[in-house]
Design brief:
The complex is a heterodimer of chains A (about 550) and B (about 425). Chain A has about 550 residues and is mainly alpha-helical. Helix content of chain A is about 55%, strand content about 5%. In chain A, helix 2 crosses helix 17 and helix 12 packs across helix 14. The two termini of chain A are about 20 Å apart. Chain B is an alpha/beta fold. Chain B is about 30% helix and about 15% strand. Classes of the chains: A mainly alpha (about 550), B alpha/beta (about 425).
Chain lengths: ~550, ~425
Amino acid sequence: MNLDGDLTMKYFRFSILLFLFGVSVIRANEGLLAPDTPLEKVIDHYISKSWQEKNITPAKNCDDSVWLRRVTLDLNGRIPTLKEAQDFAKDSNVNKRQLAIERLMKSDCYHRHLARELDITLMAGQRSGLLDYLTKATAQNLSWEKIFKELILADDSDASKKGVSDFLKTRIKDLDRLTNDVSVAFFGINVSCAQCHDHPLVADWKQDHFYGMKSFFSRTYEVGDFLAEREYGVVKFLPNKGQEKQANFMFLTGKTVTPPGLTEPSKEELKKEKELLEKLKKNKERPPQAKFSTRALLIETALAGKEKEFFARNMVNRVWNRLFGFGLVMPLDQMHSENPPSHPELIDWLARDFSAKGYDISRLVKGMVSSKLYGLSSRYEGGSVPVSKDFAFARLKPLLPMQMGVSLKISNQVVYTGDLEKKFEELERSGRGLADQFPIPGEDFQIGVTEALFFSNSARFASEAIPEGTDKLVHAMMALPSLEDRAEVAVWSVLSRQPSQDEKTVVAGYLKKHGPDSKDACKQVIWSLVSSPEFRFNY
Amino acid sequence: MSNRQFCGSMEHFVSRRGFIGSAAGLSIGSFLGQKTVAEEIKKQGKSVIMLWLAGGASQLETWDPKPGAVTGGPFRSIQTSTPGIQISELMPKMAARLKDTCIIRSLNTKNADHGSGAQLMMRGRRDDAALKFPDLGSVIARELGKPDSPVPDYVSFYLQTEGRNFAGSGFLGARYGPMELSKEAMPENVSRLDQISLEDFHDRQALRDLWSKNFSMGRNSGVLASHEQAYLRVNGLMDSKKLFDVTKESQKTRDKYGPTQFAEQVLIARRLAEAGVPFVRVGRAWWDSHGQNFETHQELVPELDHVMATLLDDLAERGMLKNTMVITLSEFGRTPSINASLGRDHFASAWSCSISGCGVVGGSVYGKTDAKGDKVAEGEIGAARLFATIYKALGINPQKNYYVGSRPVPLTDPGTEPVKEVLA
C-alpha cells in the first residue's frame, strides 16, 4: 500500500531533475519535502517510503467506528457517546472524518484533555496547581513556547496565572531533580547519569552538561510561599576525575553563556540579603524580581539558533508518541546521537515545521490525526509482525486514568439533555473518583491484578461504573423487548461499534439464561464489556 | 495436564498460562532479560518473610548487647546455642534456637531519618533524580513470582500507622506492587459481592473472555497480555482469601504463635509462604523509643523473640526452612548513648539485622561493633551489600540488569559484593 502516491511521484521527478542537473540528493534540511506541504501528507510520504524500503506491508485501514473511537479518545479524552458513534457510522459525507476532527478540536474537552496530557508529561501524576494553569493556557491556545517560558519564569504575581509556578515550586528543594526534569520534559534528554559521571554510553553527555544545566536554576530558591532568584551564584562540582570545578552555564548542546554575577557578594551584602529575606518571610511578602534572571537566560539560549532543535524535536516526539503509541525516538528521554530516530527526515521536517509555525501543538495534533497512517488498524494479520518503530499497524494505547473514568461514565450514559459541553464537564467531574483507581501508563506499562479485582468485586465499581437511572444504559436495555436489540445498544454504547450477529446471539442467549426481566443480567453484560480489553485500550 | 505442552526439553516445559506470561515478558523486550533454566530451578519455591520493625529497633536490646558498658542499659546478655555468641536476655527463645539464624552486627547505613532511611532499607539504595527503584518485595515478586500464580506475589501487612507507605514497586510498575493490608488482615476486593451469585459471577467472566478472545486475535502486545493475565488471576486470588483466614489453622498452632496481632499476621505470612507467595512483609511498629527505651523494648522484644522462634520452629517442622528466608530489619538502629528521657535516638552507624533459613550460615554472627557500640569495628557493610547478600542467598544474581528504556539498572549498584561469610 502506498499512502502517498502523488507526492512520491513528485519527489521522484524532483530527484530525476536534480540528477539531470548533476546535483546529488542529500539528506540535509534542503532535501526535506517543501515546507508548505500539508503535514499529514508529509507523514504519509515518509512512512510509506520506509515501508517500501523495508518491503513491509502495513495493516489494513481501520473502519469508521474504530477511527471515531480512537480520535475521540485522543482529542477529547473520552469515548464517543452512543449518538455520536451511531450518527458517524450512518453519515455518508466523504469528508466526515475531517469534520469530526474539527468538531472535536472545538470542544472544551479538547483543551482539558490536552492540559491533562501535558500535566502528565510535566508532573507524572503528582497533583499540583499546574493543571489549572495548563487548562487555561490550552483554552487560550497558547503555544508550547509560551507555556515553556511561563513555566520556567514561574511568575505567578498575576492571579490569572495561578499554578504556573508549581512546576518549579514542587522541585525547588531538589535542584538535581529539577535539572533533570527540565531536561527530560522540554528537551527529551535524561542527563541524570551525568550527575555522577560522564555518560558511559553517550559521548554527548558529560558532567559539564548536567552541572551546566543545573547552573541556570542554582540561583532560584524559596522565600516562604514565593520563588526568588539571586543575582549571583555558580555551581561547583567534583568531577569523578580531577579537582573541584566551577560549572559553566551550559545548555545541553554544549553552548555556554555568561551571565553577570559570577562572583560571590561581600559579607556585608550577604548580611543585608539575609535580613531582607527574614523580613519578607515574616510579612509573607513577595520578594523583588532579580534584575538578571538566569532562568530567562536558559529560555533565551534554548530557543535560539541550533539549540532550539531539542525543544522542537522533543515535543514533536511526545505528540507523536501520544497519538501513535510509540515515539519516533524511543525512549522519549533519550534523544541523543547514539539513539537515532526511526524516521530521521520525518522528525526533521516536523520539528522544522513546529518551530517555524510558532510551536503550535494543535497544528501538530491535527496533522497527525488527519494522516492516513492514523487510520491503520491495530490488528496485523500478515506473516511476520513488523516492529513497533515501523508503524505498520496501530499500537494499543492503555487509557489514561481520566480517559478511563470519563469513558466508564459515558459508556453508561445514553440520554443527554441540555448543553452537551456542560454535560461532558459534569461527567468528567463524576468520573474523577474512578479515574483515581488507575495508574498512569508509561513505557513498558503492565496492568496489575488489583485492577481486575477492583472491577470484579468492588461495591464502589459496581455502583459508580454501572449506575442505574432513567438516562442510563441499564434502563435503555430493559426498555427494549428484543434481547438482540439489548445486545446491540450495549455494544454500541460501551464499545462504540455495531456488534456482529454472532455477538448479538451470544449476548441474547446470556440474557435469556439469566432472566429476560433481570436488570442484573443487563449489568453483567455491561460489566463484561467494560472489563474487556476492547474498552481498556485505545486501539 | 491437558494444558501443558512438553517436547522433552526443560526449556519448553511450560504451561499455557506460563507461556502467555513469558510472551508478555518478551514483548517488553530486554526489560526482563532472559532467565536461564538453571537460575529458574534454583529459585523455585523460595519465599521471604520480612519482619519489619518500624521506627527502629535497638540493636543493644536485641542482637548486639553491651552489658557493663556505659551504653549497655539494664539488660544482661545470655549465651546462645552457638558457643561464643551472646544476645540480649530479652530474647531467650532465639538464643536457644540460633542454629538457623545469621546475625549481622555491622550495618552502617548512614541515614538516620525515618522516611529516607526506610526507603533506603526497603530498596537497598537511594532513588536517583530520574528513577524510583523497586523495593525488595517487588524485586522478589518479579524474580520469584510466577506470571500465572493463583496467589499474590507480594503481600504487605501494615496495620499500624507508624512508618507506613515507604514500600513501592518503583520502575517495575503496578504489576509488582504490594497487595497492601493496611486496614484489615484481609486483602481488598477478594470477596464476591452479595449481589451476584457464584454462577453468574463465572458466567459473566466467560462472557468477558469471549470479547477478549475476539479482540486479541491479530493483536500481540505485552500490555494486552498483562490485562488478560490480571483477569486470569482473579479467581485464584479470591480462593487465596482462605490463606488470610487465621481461623483455618488449628488451635494448637495458633496457641503456639500467641494471640497478638503481630503473631497472627506472622502465622498468616507462614500460610502464604507455604502456598507459594514469594514475599510477605509483616510490619510491627512503635519501636521508636526516644523516651523509655528500656520499657519499650522490654515489651516488644519478648514478643518478637517468641513469634520469630515459633515461626522458625514451624517452618522447620514443615520442611520449609531451607527455602524460606526470614529477615528482621528496621530503617535503622538506636543510639548507644542514652538520652535524658532514658531513651535511645535514631542511629544508623552501627546496628544489626538478622537473616534466617534459606541460603545463610545458621548459628553465626557477621561483623562486630566496638566496646560501646558506637562504631563498626569489623566487617562494615551498607544497605547495598546487605541486599546483594539477600539476593545471592535466594539464588538471584545481584548484578542482573533490568532495563529502564535503554538504561541498564543492575539489582544492586555495580561492584557490590555479597557477604560471603553470611552465605551457606
